[in-house]
Amino acid sequence: MEQATLVRRTADDQGAFQAREYREGVVPLQSRPRETAVNSPYAPVELNREELELLAEIATGVTTEVAARHLELSARTLRRRIRNICDVLGVNTPIEAVVWAARRQLI
């Protein structure tokens, strides 16, 4: 339950964060150039339906085992897929991946 609350708060607070500048030299997300080069740090990232379902399941705050059962996967496969999603998004934790998707209103 705490994870879902964190995600909702982060998504709700996004508008407040966009109006502030916390550090000099930081370029706000919306004004960054859209580069399409594969190695670009700003390259658009897309997740497929199954990956989004997995993030939505994690966002509910259930354990890995419960999420795996709901998605009809083994817990090990679920953890591997979560790690792959984190790698694609360039985040360190599943919660960061969930926040990424929530901010983009994908889940």
In brief, what are we looking at here?
Helices cover 56% and strands 0% of the residues. With 107 residues, the chain is mainly alpha-helical.
Structural summary, described in words:
- The chain is mostly helical and 107 residues long.
- It has a single domain (2-103), classed as Arc Repressor Mutant, subunit A (Orthogonal Bundle).
- Helix content is 56%, strand content 0%.
- The chain is built from 5 helices and no strands.
- The chain has helices at residues 2-18, 49-59, 64-70, 75-89, 94-103.
- The longest helix is centred in the first third of the chain and has 17 residues, at 2-18.
- The protein starts with a helix and ends with a helix.
- The relative contact order is 0.17.
CATH fourth-tier homologous superfamily: Winged helix-like DNA-binding domain superfamily/Winged helix DNA-binding domain
- CATH architecture type: Orthogonal Bundle
Indicate the mean pLDDT.
76
User: What is the percentage of strand-forming residues?
Assistant: under 5%
What spatial form do the alpha-carbon principal axes imply?
Answer: globular
CATH hierarchy, class = Mainly Alpha
Secondary-structure topology with pairs:
Layout: H1 2-18, H2 49-59, H3 64-70, H4 75-89, H5 94-103
Helix pairs in contact: 1-5, 2-5, 3-4, 4-5
Notable traits:
107 residues; 56% helix; 0% strand; 5 helices; Arc Repressor Mutant, subunit A; mainly alpha
